[in-house]
Amino acid sequence: MPKFPAMTMGRQDDELESLELLRTPYTATWTSLGEVPKNHPLVTVMSLVAAQFIVFIAAQAPHLISSGVLFFRFAAIVASTHLAIAFAQSLHFGATEPGFLPTGEELKTLMAKCDASKDQSCATGDELRALDAARSVYEEAFQHTCLAEAMDDGYYVKQAILPPPTVELEGLKWCTTCLIWRPPRCSHCSTCGRCVLEFDHHCHMLGRCIGRRNHQTFLLITWSAGINSFLIAFVSCYQLFTWYSSVGVPDLKGVPGSSLHRWGLMAFAVICASGCLYFANPRALGCGCTRRGYRQILFCIGVLAAAMLIGLLIHLRMSGRMEWYILGVTFSCVLSGATCPFIMCSALEQLENACRGSTVKRVAVDQRSGVRKPPISLTNVWSFLFSERPPSLFSS
Ligand SMILES: [Zn+2]
Ligand SMILES: [Zn+2]
Predict the structure, then answer these.
(1) CA–CA gap between residue 304 and residue 244 (Å, rounded)
(2) Burial of 299 by CB count in 10 Å (0-12 exposed, 13-18 middle, 19+ buried)?
(3) Ligand nearest, relative to CA of residue 202
């Protein structure tokens, strides 16, 4: 059997099956996004943003605009614009691959396939593009190492999969899971099971890795979500307070549902206060960054929202004052008030890192090794926001 039977073959998948070298799980659809880690879809986050948008536009914004107060008009316009931006950016974020790197085995397969296609096309256009992208990534990554001058086009990619001590690359780390040399600032994500270019962190709330290809979008999402949740929380608290003042709180006593609603409000105040404490203590950030932490936060917000809404609904029906407006305000108050400190904390952290040209991962590594934070510079922000994203090694 010839070493590369693909040289005499067409591109049909069944023919490729007989090629021993290409028998890996990634052979058939190398460049499809389906082969990168299956992150959970953004359904929860997107539905909450959409629900918040509908409630805000339908129930709250008309009251704010007709209030005649300039700040409330401004808040209504800014909050709804930022909600729309957050929704659009989340859609974009969901469709962008963070910058995953293929494993050593996959790179080997890809190179063999593309080599074989020099004589007979057996690699698809996407696969040739993926190899080109890998070449440019490794060329950039290894240009400061002690590697010799490139011998051919694929030289650096070939070096990237040679394990130590065959190759020793100064300052770079060998990934023992993916079996590749990691480019600088590339880290392995244990949740996704792949190395990610300029790895920042794995966001359990959005269910994805943050890396070089989606970092700018992530910063925009955190800021637009942070601004709208802050403004909506502020105006919702005001609207809730004004409504209570107008109906007169003493009248509510003894009406079924009102105590549940009051307890809900109190618990809401507690979670907002703990959110503020969390906001004030950056070291506590780590505790919310696990999948379990986020689930607990979402669970608390869900229970609170349900308690407040059910209590208020019963109360309004029994007291004969059925007002959908105040139900909407309560929903916004819980959702925005409880999430605002966490989102703002993340937004500020992301902005600080962008100013320092750093990442969450790098800050943690520097802290462990006692290295001082790099200085803040506007040039860093500029290059962070406007640097070109490298092509994906996975999507076409
Ligand atoms: Zn890895
Ligand atoms: Zn990840």
Answers:
(1) 19
(2) exposed
(3) 2
> Is the pLDDT assigned to residue 4 strictly greater than 50?
no
| Distance from the alpha carbon of residue 365 to the mean position of ligand 1, in angstroms | 17
- Confidence category of residue 221, pLDDT binned at 50, 70, 90: very high
Query: What is the distance, to the nearest Å, from the Cα of residue 218 to the centroid of all Cα atoms in its chain?
Result: 6
Residue 232 has pLDDT above 70, yes or no: yes
Strand ranges in the chain using DSSP code E only, listed in sequence order:
173-175, 180-182, 187-189, 194-196, 201-203, 208-210
For residue 33, the CA-to-ligand 1 centroid distance in Å is: 18
CA of 191 to the centre of ligand 2 (A): 5
Name the burial class of residue 209, with classes exposed (0-12), middle (13-18) and buried (19+) by CB atoms within 10 angstroms of its CB. buried
The answer to whether the predicted template modeling score (pTM) of the entire model surpasses 0.85 is no
Residue 378 CA to ligand 1 centre (angstroms)? 32
Q: Which has the minimum average pLDDT: 9-23, 76-90, 120-134, 210-224?
A: 9-23
192 CA → ligand 2 middle, Å:
4
Residue 330: per-residue pLDDT: 81
**Residue 94: which of 6, 225, 213, 243 has the closest Cα?**
213
- What's the CA dihedral at 388, 389, 391, 394 to 10 degrees? 180
